[in-house]
Amino acid sequence: MANITAQMVKALREQTGAGMMDCKAALTETGGDATAAVDWLRSKGLSKAAKKSSRVAAEGLIGVALGETAGALVEVNAETDFVARNEEFQALVRTVAEIALANGGDLEATGAAPYPGSGKSVSERITELIGTIGENMTLRRAAGLSVAQGVVAAYVHNAVAEGLGRIGVLVGLESAGDRDRLAALARQLAMHVAAASPLAISVADLDPEVVARERAVLTEQARESGKPDGIIGKMVDGRIRKFHEEVVLTAQTFVIDGERTVARVIEDAAGELGAPVAIAGFVRLALGEGIEREQSNFAAEVAAAAGN
User: Fold this and answer.
1) Rounded Cα gap, residues 66 and 69, in angstroms
2) Which of 40, 149, 244, 283 is geometrically suited to a Cys-Cys bond with 170, CB 3.0 to 4.6 A?
3) For residues 136 and 50, what is the distance between their CA atoms, to the nearest angstrom?
4) Mean pLDDT highest for which of 23-32, 33-42, 204-213, 276-285?
């Protein structure tokens, strides 16, 4: 029979959130195999982490980390926005962002990387915190951006702490120009991206499927006017150009001055810096986007609580 130590029981309890006696029973049943013990607890419905993992986690925080010529964003989700104010959760997101930066923004590599001071991976540390914080949590997304020469700047919207908020943006600019002035411009562009949510840097970068869908919708709308096909084609072309102005970064009106296009802003900056400036890329993560949230019936919940 395996020797089940108090340390083994404690570690399993931290990982699963199950009771001490249940953890001891699980380890006894599985001969001290911690992984098998987790599965045993789950099979008995005793693992709090397993129970919570089925609940929708659409809140949480976006975290950002910056290096010399690179940056990373992560989205760590929880069930309620209350957790975003939890210092332990904030420390987790901040640390995971730094780990993502070291791993080029690769989600799988970030999840598998060692979490400092824990003896666990990032994914295991998150599972551990599910039991202590009391909510389902997931590392949902990670992204990175780097430049060969130039800067990567970041902007966090609805920030709750330094580098943590509900929307995170990275913008990379390639240039041999002055780094401080380049960084200031890149940050303004990051603010623009947060507000305008472009889909691509240029028209050529747009997903052809997105353009095809938009053209199909616009064509159907134009047909309702009853105009001849030749006129409809011109109407659709004009509306596609308008679509480009709405979703293509360089074609958008710069939100900072409300006058120039972003392409013109880049042009002007190149003239002022005395060196070419190019947008190397951008990344925008908004908390919870694309997650189907549970719709609760408050009246039904109250009635159920009252025993009706």
Assistant:
1) 8
2) 283
3) 9
4) 276-285
Distance, in Å, from the CA atom of 237 to the CA atom of 220, rounded to the nearest integer, reads 13
Residue type, 161: A
Structurally, at CATH architecture level, domain 6-40 sits in Orthogonal Bundle (1.10)
Give the CATH number of domain 59-166.
3.30.479.20
Residue for token pair 């029981």: 9
Which residue's structure tokens are 């840097």? 201
Residue 210 CB contacts under 8 Å (≥ 6 apart), including other chains: 199
Mean pLDDT across the chain, nearest whole number? 88
Is the predicted pLDDT of residue 250 greater than 70, yes or no?
Answer: yes
Q: From CA 90, how far away is CA 84, in angstroms rounded? A: 7
Average pLDDT over residues 109-134: 91
pTM across the whole model? 0.76
Domain ranges of the chain: 6-40, 59-166
Residues shown for the chain: 308
Side by side, the strands of the sheet bearing 167-174 are 150-157, 167-174, 278-286
Q: Tell me: the pLDDT tens digits for 222-235?
A: 888 788 888 888 99
